Amino acid sequence: MTKDKIKEVMDACYQAKRIRDMLPALPGGVTPSHIHYLDTLRKLEKMEGKVRVSDMSENLGLPRPSVTKTVKDMEKLGFVEKETTETDGRFVYIKTTRTGRDLVDKYVDEYFGNLSENLGGITDEDADKMIEVVEKLYIVMSNRK
């Protein structure tokens, strides 16, 4: 890739950040990370049933301490609950509360469902290619530290 093309890619990343900034305003105390974590937790709950912080960490590709901190914040806000197993208290599972599910319903399902109606000109293949390129760029940039 040429230097000029790399600049175009970085300009597109800047544009992508501006697009993310156009997402709907969240209620007080709620961050985009909370919505992302809740959406991920909901998906994992559907696939696996019980979910641990380590499952979230692995799925999000984030360090466990960071995920633990955000989960604690979400617990204080009433978006998730923790539960331990009766046989071994060391195993702590997290699950979404009704409030957490309502947030995901509104800010992910409804919003993105409505948005998809306006994105008919972008195919799944286009989106998959964009995702692939962003993931490759992320890996390269992460390894340059």
Mind explaining what this structure looks like?
- This protein is mostly helical and 145 residues long.
- Helices cover 66% and strands 7% of the residues.
- The protein contains six helices and two strands, in the order ααααββαα.
- Strands 1-2 form a two-stranded antiparallel ribbon.
- Strand 1 (80-84) and strand 2 (92-96) form a beta hairpin.
- Helix 2 (32-48) packs across helix 3 (53-60), helix 2 packs across helix 5 and helix 3 (53-60) crosses helix 4 (64-76).
- This is MarR family transcriptional regulator.
- Pfam families: MarR_2.
- Keywords: DNA-binding, Transcription, Transcription regulation.
- InterPro entries: ArsR-like_HTH, HTH_MarR-typ, MarR/SlyA-like, Tscrpt_reg_MarR-type_CS, WH-like_DNA-bd_sf, WH_DNA-bd_sf.
- It comes from Anaerobutyricum soehngenii.
Mean residue pLDDT = 91
Sheet with most strands: 2 strands, antiparallel
Provide the structure class.
mainly alpha
The low-pLDDT segments are none
Strand order in the sheet with the most strands:
1-2
Order of helices and strands: HHHHEEHH
Radius of gyration, taken over Cα atoms and rounded to an integer in Å: 18 Å
Strand content: 5-15%
Q: What shape does the CA trace take?
A: globular
Task: Give the number of helices.
Answer: 6
| Total count of strands | 2
The amount of helix comes to 55-70%
Distance between the termini: 21 Å
